[in-house]
From TrEMBL:
It comes from Lasiosphaeris hirsuta. SUPFAM superfamilies: P-loop containing nucleoside triphosphate hydrolases (SSF52540). Residues 104-274 form the Nephrocystin 3-like N-terminal domain. Keywords: Repeat. The keyword Cytoplasm does not apply. Gene3D superfamilies: P-loop containing nucleotide triphosphate hydrolases (3.40.50.300). This is Nephrocystin 3-like N-terminal domain-containing protein.
Length: 403
């Protein structure tokens, strides 16, 4: 077959080349085909490693991307200056008064821990996703991980699950696509191992990348299985997966997937979820941090910065220093560690102060707001004039239609 391929590629006409491609696709994408066949070599054809691997990786993995590939991460708010930096510090609160483990050293886990998983947990809205984003954007991450990886190539991949998003944003298929795309574009020389079918097709033809079949679930599963079977001497891989509770499968299946992923000696996984019982049962003995129990300092910083920028409140604070200080302290305490609640309430109070409300009125607004997020939104909505409500409904419908 090699001689016939060489003849067609050298002198064949368009139709012959098309037929050759079709025949190769049928052979290589047969589920029974074995990766060892990727070693086929056609005499006289350049070795594919001589071609720009980065370009080849980009082309071969292009079909893994989907429209909402990065939309969830882009929608996550950046942390306020000087907040969340404590995650890279020695723990200042290891347990709660009743002995519950609340914070394990994150740098220790990055550098040398034999535990494969670090669990970031917390109430809804407590800042888990923002913490993930902060960690991934912090230069200290790679510095600590280099102790663990040594001279072995270090790869970092991320995925943010989102139950309110598109199908691929909340499915295992989308998770695997996202991770494989990032890994292969960081380390293109893993292509032959992780994508043997597409690599074989390209190696034999050195052309026709655009003619490869669309990715099907079974091939994605196969590539992910090859990833998990890699030895630690080739790469060290760290996965960050946010929103375990956002997947559209039972929590037990999510736990099973990540435990099988972290079973590889070359892989660590930092995962984030709400403190559901299934996740607590699986990760209670793993290094972890409970966001809603650890963010009081961050919340005080956020509140201070936000109100410092409100001239009307600064004036009130100069006149009523005791009452203003008490208001800010109650804000942090009433939030119960939920950053989303705090953001919504602070924005509402700043707006009220700007519109001329006094300190007594601001305190009354805070006292009237409930700590449950759903009830809080209902209370804020009820305070909006009916004309503005109608316009708001139209805007919300437009936003929903856009997604």
């Amino acid at each position: 077959m090699a001689e016939e391929m060489q003849r067609i590629l050298s002198t064949g006409q368009g139709q012959e080349i098309v037929e050759l491609r079709d025949e190769l696709r049928c052979i290589i994408w047969d589920p029974e085909w074995q990766p060892e066949e990727s070693r086929l070599h056609v005499p006289g054809v350049r070795d594919p490693s001589e071609i720009g691997l980065k370009y080849v990786a980009l082309q071969l993995t292009r079909g893994l991307k989907f429209e909402e590939f990065q939309s969830r991460e882009a929608a996550i708010a950046d942390c306020i200056l000087q907040t969340y930096s404590w995650i890279f510090d020695p723990p200042f609160q290891v347990t709660t008064p009743d002995g519950e483990n609340t914070w394990s050293s994150f740098p220790d886990w990055l550098e040398r821990s034999s535990d494969p998983i670090y669990w970031i947990t917390g109430k809804p809205g407590s800042g888990k996703s923002t913490m993930m984003k902060y960690i991934l954007e912090n230069p200290a991450l790679k510095t600590h991980l280099r102790h663990w990886a040594g001279d072995t190539p270090l790869l970092i991949a991320r995925s943010y699950a989102w139950n309110a998003g598109a199908t691929l944003q909340k499915s295992f298929g989308g998770l695997k696509r996202t991770l494989l795309y990032q890994i292969l574009n960081q380390q293109p020389d893993l292509l032959p191992e992780l994508m043997p079918r597409r690599w074989a097709y390209y190696s034999l033809l050195l052309q026709g990348i655009s003619q490869t079949p669309p990715w099907l679930d079974w091939e994605i599963d196969e590539s992910f299985k090859f990833l998990l079977s890699m030895g630690g001497d080739k790469v060290r891989l760290v996965l960050f997966v946010d929103g375990l509770d956002e997947f559209d499968v039972p929590p037990k299946e999510v736990v099973d997937l990540h435990e099988s992923t972290a079973a590889s000696k070359c892989i660590k996984a930092c995962v984030a979820s709400r403190p559901w019982v299934e996740f607590d049962d699986a990760y209670r003995d793993m290094p972890q941090c409970h966001m809603h129990l650890l963010t009081a300092r961050d919340m005080r910083t956020f509140v201070a910065e936000r109100f410092r920028g409100c001239r009307a409140f600064t004036t009130l604070r100069n006149i009523y220093p005791h009452e203003a200080t008490r208001l800010l302290e109650e804000l942090t305490g009433k939030s119960n560690g939920v950053f989303v609640w705090l953001r919504v309430v602070v924005d509402s109070l700043v707006e009220s102060a700007t519109e001329g409300c006094g300190i007594v009125e601001l305190q009354a607004v805070l006292d009237s707001l409930l700590t449950d997020l759903t009830l809080l939104y209902d209370a804020i909505w009820s305070r909006i004039p009916s004309d503005s409500q109608r316009r708001g409904v139209i805007l919300l419908q437009l936003v929903e239609a856009a997604f």
